[in-house]
Specification:
- The chain has 533 residues and is mainly β.
- Among the domains are: 30 residues; 86 residues, Sandwich (Immunoglobulin-like).
- It has two helices and 37 strands.
- The strands form nine sheets. Strands 6, 7, 8, 9 and 10 form a five-stranded antiparallel β-sheet that branches. Strands 23-24-25-26-30 form a five-stranded mixed β-sheet, with no helix packed on it. Strands 1-29-28-27 form a four-stranded antiparallel β-sheet, with no helix packed on it.
- A hairpin with a 2-residue loop joins strand 36 and strand 37.
- The chain is globular and about 75 Å long.
């Protein structure tokens, strides 16, 4: 093994410095990737089922040496009421405890990602909706639930109509806390009237301090996420839409209030001609707002194609940067936005794969990571169930104590996949990998398997790199080069019936790269190689 400590660090010549860099790269490459990764991260992917019936989750948080998952489950007796569920799992993904809360004639729903938060060393808060079906409508009340670290309920508070005629629906979607107060957002909708954004402030015990409503005209307004800014005000990630036969009515909305809930400004960053999506907001480390949503590009009835949009906005409503990512995807839905401890931005969601054909599941989850300036670092897609028409919905992704990521959602099987709709949970490393030694490649489907042998030469490469296949290439064969950050830097199409293709890599800096071979967008092989100057 090369002992880097014996190489003098005071080298003065460029050639010597380049040699040292190359030796360092070779040294790193000589360590098995499994050892590098497994020393830092614990990987798993699990499917959790309660009562052998309907389950799923929108929230996960880390607590000491465990993870706590909040979601829904069908009651085990009547199998038609939805109850709150709280599940505790180990760092290996094994179930440790499970508690279910609900009533035989009442449905209880959890809100969006961010509707479960840690409030103190031993208590957690969640928000959602308590629903009672009436003869002519529903009776919805906003709900705050406080549980302890044993998943036992300490108290529940309800907000909305307490007396008949119960003609107004109240729903809560997300909660944040600041010292002794709580702030929640959701919606209020009278029967037959368009909904308004609901901003509710309570004390730490859930006693209402004040509430405000936002929206006008015949458009439906909903608040889906909320953060508090340094001036004591609040930013709401929202959506507005009109119920109509044709599409093109769903628009993202960002709304800022002062500390008393008085509106100060609003932004609508969507495409006015195509459906977009709700906004999920988070706070950047510098106190500005990170807003994630989708930007629609094409409408087809109730369906649409959309890109991912991330914006950075000052507390005064100035757009600092505004970027769209990836190619438009069919029924693409961003579901959560978070900011990591290092300032990077992680957003996640699910997309429909209808346009790809029958060999794909109906839905895949995805994660996109950018740096604090919005530069894309990596993107990955995930599917635990791979049968045609099965669903893989990734609702919530959070940073873990080890610097990795934990994700949770729902899988819904369709034959040949079996079972019921279950909670889907997966532990990843900091690059979204589900196993030690996986690549950090942008856009590579993490569920792809099956490797085709191919050769790269010369290695190390200097100016040109040739890829050689063991047989003639099929139509749609592509070889792509990614750097260690997962950014695509070169690609070449291998002509049908050819066996080789050559890339000019002379402009790329010295370092380690990954070559990925795809056939009709399916990954068939991967090889690491070095470029040496």
């Amino acid at each position: 093994m090369i002992n880097l400590l014996n190489i003098k660090t005071g080298l003065k010549h460029k050639r010597a410095r380049n040699c040292l860099a190359l030796l360092a790269l070779i040294f790193i490459q000589s360590i098995p990737s499994e050892l590098l990764s497994q020393s830092e991260f614990n990987y798993f992917e699990k499917r959790i089922d309660h009562h052998n019936n309907y389950d799923y989750s929108r929230n996960i948080i880390e607590y000491d040496s465990t993870y706590i998952i909040a979601g829904f489950t069908e009651d085990s007796v009547y199998l038609y009421n939805i109850h709150l569920s709280f599940t505790k799992i180990s760092k290996d993904g094994n179930e440790l405890d499970f508690k279910e809360y609900g009533f035989d004639t009442i449905n209880m729903f959890l809100g969006n990602p961010g509707s479960l938060i840690k409030f103190s060393d031993t208590t957690f808060l969640s928000v959602g909706t308590k629903r009672i079906y009436t003869s002519d409508w529903v009776h919805d009340e906003g709900m705050i639930t406080c549980i302890n670290n044993n998943l036992d309920t300490l108290w529940i508070k309800y907000f909305g109509e307490q007396l008949s005629p119960y003609d107004t629906s109240f729903m809560l979607y997300q909660i944040k806390h600041n010292n002794s107060s709580l702030i929640q957002t959701g919606l209020r909708m009278p029967n037959g009237v368009a909904s308004k954004i609901w901003l509710l402030k309570t004390d730490s015990l859930g006693n209402k301090l004040w509430e405000k409503f936002y929206g006008e005209g015949n458009e439906y307004f909903q608040g889906h996420s909320v953060v508090q800014t340094a001036d004591g005000g609040y930013v709401i990630g929202a959506v507005k839409f009109i119920i109509q036969a044709s599409g093109g009515s769903v628009d993202p909305l960002i709304l800022k209030t002062d500390s008393l809930g008085n509106e100060e400004w609003r932004l609508n960053p969507g495409n006015p001609n195509v459906d977009d999506n709700k906004v999920m907001v988070a706070l950047a480390q510098d106190g500005n707002i990170i807003a994630g949503t989708n930007y629609g590009t094409e409408q087809s009835g109730d369906h649409y194609w959309a890109r991912v949009k991330i914006m950075k906005i000052s507390p005064y409503g100035m757009v600092l940067w505004n970027k769209n990512y990836l190619q438009p995807q069919y029924d693409n839905y961003l579901l959560n936005t978070i900011v990591l401890n290092n300032g990077n931005i992680v957003i996640n969601g699910s997309r429909n794969t209808y346009a790809l054909g029958n060999e794909y599941p109906e839905k895949k989850g995805w994660i996109l990571c950018t740096d604090s300036l919005g530069n894309q670092l990596w993107y990955k897609e995930y599917a635990l169930l791979t049968g045609h028409n099965s669903y893989n919905d990734l609702y919530d992704v959070r940073e873990t104590f080890d610097g990795g990521l934990i994700g949770v959602g729902k899988v819904s099987p369709v034959v040949p996949d079996t079972g019921t709709s279950d909670i889907w949970v997966m532990k990843m490393d900091s690059m979204g990998c589900l196993w030690a030694g996986c690549d950090t490649t942008v856009g590579i489907n993490s569920t792809t398997s099956g490797y085709t042998s191919f050769v790269l030469y010369p290695v190390p490469a200097t100016n040109r790199l040739t890829v050689k296949l063991p047989e003639e290439a099929e139509k749609g064969t592509l070889f792509t080069v990614y750097n260690i950050l997962g950014t695509k830097v070169k690609s070449v199409t291998i002509p049908q019936q050819a066996q080789t293709a050559t890339l000019n890599v002379g402009s790329l800096p010295q370092g380690v790269y990954l070559g990925v071979l795809t056939v009709k967008d399916n990954v068939t092989g991967k090889r690491k190689f070095i470029i040496q100057k």
